[in-house]
Design a protein that fits this description.
It holds the Pfam family DUF1611. This is DUF1611 domain-containing protein. It comes from Stenotrophobium rhamnosiphilum. InterPro entries: DgcN-like, DgcN-like_C, DgcN-like_N, P-loop_NTPase. The protein is α/β, with parallel strands linked by helices. It folds into 2 domains: 123 residues, Rossmann fold (3-Layer(aba) Sandwich); 192 residues, Rossmann fold (3-Layer(aba) Sandwich). It is 31% helix and 17% strand. The chain has a 6-stranded parallel sheet with strand order 8-10-7-11-12-13, sandwiched between helices. It has a 5-stranded parallel sheet with strand order 3-2-4-5-6, with helices on both faces. Strands 1-9 form a two-stranded antiparallel ribbon. The radius of gyration is 20 Å and the shape is globular. It starts with 8 loop residues before the first strand and ends with a helix.
C-alpha cells in the first residue's frame, strides 16, 4: 500500500459545484471545469458564464442564488487563464456567490484573500475561500534517492493534451482489476478530483524535484503511483516544472501523450511540437538521471474527433513508430498498456 505524504495539499469541498467559466474562448481554457465534469459528474450542478464566454459544459446555466437554492455548496473557478490571475471582471460574480452562501474554490495563482473586501465578506457570510494552489512552505530539495514501489508518469508533446485524463484512466482501470494503485495529482483540477495532491506549478523551482519525491513516497514493492504530468519539455514557458517532476517522481514507466491534430505548441505556435520519436527519446534521456531503468510503456492519443477507421490508422501508426501500445484513454482499451507496465 502507498501512504499519504505529509506534504500533500488536502482539500474537503462542499458539493455540489457551480462551475464558473468566465470568458473562456476555447475548451482548453476551461480545463478545470471540464475535468470536474468528466471525472466527478455527479458533483457538478450547473455552470455560470460571463457574456463573452464561448464554451459550454452542457450543464444548466445558473446564477449563484439559483444554484444555492438548488443545493450547491461551492462555486469553483473552472478556468485556467495564462498566468493564473483572477480577472477584475470576475469579482462581481464571486461576491454574488458569497452573498448566496457558496464557498469559493480557486486554483489560480492569485489568492482569493488578496481581492479587497472578499475575505471580510466571506467571514461575515460564514463561507470559505479555498485556494487549492497553495503548496507547503517546508518542501525539501530533491535527493535522487531511490524509493520503494513503482511509478508511472504521464508526459506530453505539449500542455493540455490528456496527461491528467490518461493518469486518471490508468489508475482507475488498475484499481478495477485489484491492482494496488493511486492517482497522484499535481495540478489544481486533479487535486479537486482526488481531494489531495501537490500543485507543482506553484512550487519554487529549487524545490520542484523534492516536491515530486514527497508526492510519491516509499510504498509496497508492487504498488503503483500514477503521477499526473505537468507542462512539456518542449514548451518554452513550462518545461521547468516538467523536468522537476520527471526527476523527482523517478518514474519506472512513462506514457507519452499527444494530440495528432496539432503540429505546433498551442499557446506559442512559433514553436513546433516534436515528433513522437524525438519526444520519447528526450523524456527517456532526461528521466534516466534519477532512474536509469526508466522505460516507455505507451502512447496516449486524442482521437475523439476521428471516425473509427482514422482512429485505428493513427493508433497503429504511433504503435509502429514507438514500439509500445497506443491508445485513447477515453475511447479504447487500456489493457495493453497495463500489461506492458506489469511486464506481462
Amino acid at each position: 500500500m502507498s501512504v499519504a505524504s505529509k506534504f500533500e495539499t488536502t482539500v474537503t469541498l462542499r458539493t455540489p459545484y457551480l462551475l464558473f467559466l468566465g470568458e473562456a474562448d476555447f475548451d482548453a481554457r476551461a480545463k478545470t471545469a471540464f475535468g470536474l465534469r468528466d471525472w466527478a459528474p455527479k458533483l457538478c450542478l450547473g455552470q455560470i458564464r460571463l457574456p463573452a464566454c464561448k464554451v459550454t459544459l452542457g450543464l444548466p446555466d445558473m446564477t449563484p442564488a439559483a444554484a444555492a437554492i438548488a443545493g450547491a455548496g461551492s462555486l469553483v473557478i473552472g478556468v485556467a487563464p495564462k498566468g493564473g490571475q483572477i480577472a477584475e471582471n470576475w469579482i462581481p460574480t464571486l461576491r454574488l456567490a458569497i452573498d448566496a452562501g457558496l464557498d469559493i474554490v480557486s486554483g489560480m495563482h492569485d489568492s482569493l484573500e488578496d481581492i479587497p473586501g472578499l475575505a471580510e465578506a466571506a467571514k461575515a457570510r460564514g463561507v470559505r475561500l479555498i485556494n487549492v494552489r497553495n503548496p507547503p512552505l517546508d518542501l525539501p530539495t530533491g535527493t535522487g534517492r531511490k524509493r520503494t514501489g513503482k511509478r508511472l508518469l504521464t508526459v506530453g508533446t505539449d500542455c493540455a493534451l490528456g496527461k491528467k485524463y490518461t493518469a486518471l484512466a490508468i489508475a482507475n482501470a488498475m484499481r478495477a482489476q485489484g491492482i494496488d494503485a493511486d492517482f497522484r495529482a499535481t495540478g489544481q483540477t486533479g487535486i479537486m478530483i482526488a481531494g489531495r495532491g501537490l500543485p507543482m506549478d506553484a512550487v519554487v523551482a529549487d524545490f520542484s524535484a523534492g516536491a515530486a519525491e514527497c508526492l510519491s513516497p516509499d510504498a509496497a514493492p508492487d504498488h503503483w503511483d500514477i503521477v499526473e504530468g505537468q507542462g512539456a519539455l518542449f514548451h518554452p514557458a513550462y518545461a521547468g516544472v516538467t523536468l522537476g517532476l520527471l526527476h523527482g517522481s523517478q518514474p519506472d514507466a512513462l506514457v507519452l501523450c499527444h494530440d495528432p491534430a496539432i503540429s505546433r505548441i498551442k499557446s506559442l505556435p512559433v514553436f513546433p511540437t516534436p515528433s513522437l520519436e524525438v519526444a520519447a527519446a528526450r523524456y527517456l534521456e532526461a528521466g534516466a538521471l534519477t532512474n536509469p531503468a526508466i522505460r516507455l510503456v505507451g502512447v496516449s492519443l486524442i482521437t475523439e474527433n476521428m471516425d473509427e477507421v482514422t482512429r485505428q490508422r493513427v493508433l497503429g501508426d504511433a504503435e509502429q513508430r514507438l514500439g509500445v501500445p497506443a491508445f485513447d484513454p477515453l475511447k479504447t482499451s487500456l489493457q495493453p498498456v497495463i500489461d506492458r507496465m506489469l511486464g506481462r
